[in-house]
Amino acid sequence: xxxxxxxxxxxxxxxxxxxxxxxxxxxxxxxxxxxxxxxxxxxxxxxxxxxxxxxxxxxxxxxxxxxxxxxxxxxxxxxxxxxxxxxxxxxxxxxxxxxxxxxxxxxxxxxxxxxxxxxxxxxxxxxxxxxxxxxxxxxxxxxxxxxxxxxxxxxxxxxxxxxxxxxxxxxxxxxxxxxxxxxxxxxxxxxxxxxxxxxxxxxxxxxxxxxxxxxxxxxxxxxxxxxxxxxxxxxxxxxxxxxxxxxxxxxxxxxxxxxxxxxxxxxxxxxxxxxxxxxxxxxxxxxxxxxxxxxxxxxxxxxxxxxxxxxxxxxxxxxxxxxxxxxxxxxxxxxxxxxxxxxxxxxxxxxxxxxxxxxxxxxxxxxxxxxxxxxxxxxxxxxxxxxxxxxxxxxx
Length: 396
Known about the structure:
Layout: H1 7-12, E1 18-19, H2 28-32, H3 39-52, H4 59-71, H5 75-84, H6 87-94, H7 97-102, H8 106-117, H9 124-140, H10 144-157, H11 163-175, H12 179-192, H13 197-210, H14 216-236, E2 242-243, E3 248-251, E4 256-258, E5 266-272, H15 277-292, E6 299-305, H16 313-324, E7 330-332, H17 343-347, E8 352-353, E9 355-359, E10 364-370, H18 376-391
Parallel strand pairs: 5-6, 6-7
Antiparallel strand pairs: 1-8, 2-10, 3-4, 3-7, 5-9, 9-10
């Protein structure tokens, strides 16, 4: 059965995969505005429809506006809509708005979090989210002692502690001066693939302090090699060998390309759309992977915009890439005017996006994945291993 998720649901919930859009359950005009990138245009539509429908609930759309204004660095409007939110929408915003503002204004982010922590309506879950945000804000400002103290309180309240959360706990512990205690756990994070670049740098710094006469770079490289060997072994067991369909898509200049144009090269297909939240969350990791292989002529990436929902999807996709400063090779999978199906994504029987396919030089699909979760570093590690195994299937 095909995945069926409305645009609104996919953008505003924790779904990691977006299904092809269906008839919206709320108002077509409101769900359609998810495809509009300009938050000021979105705001005009929301305010007009809210005025015309005073009895309806517009929380999810105000959440969308708060997030999009924060992404556009329009702090004033982001805070205005953030302050209007209630219930689950507010809890979701607490996890996104302060950190979005933090990316360009640490002072405002800190004041916002402190103000919200003093809010009497906070639920225990809300307070947890705010403590996490406050810790990140303080770390951004370089106050690691306070950052770790607050994160420790947050960490202690969690019933389930993910590997990424645990790795960050010990990273902050090390940065706050307790390097010896944190060292074994940071080492473990590297071996498990949950360590970010910052965590690896901190581990190396701690190693130098604890072992001044030894080679810290060799130590870190050895850990990374152990992790990569383990990851290759795990992924090797998941490899497939299926003939890829001879798809056709157009690049941004209108030139048609097909599978046969990439014979002898390893290619990565990424089916995505501007309305798909998980797709957009995955793109930073994809940019990191593209940059990693930018000098390798035998590895090609195709970011295929599909399941379009606006009159000019090419313009919308190009605009989004430009605004986010992505340097990703863009291709279009436009709907057939007769069948109304998008040919390329249909050939691959995709049920939800983002969907990725790694195809070897002989035209065989070796890996296929969908959704996005975890850290950017973990996603880069996994896709890089898939690429290497696809062009060297005997190397485990």
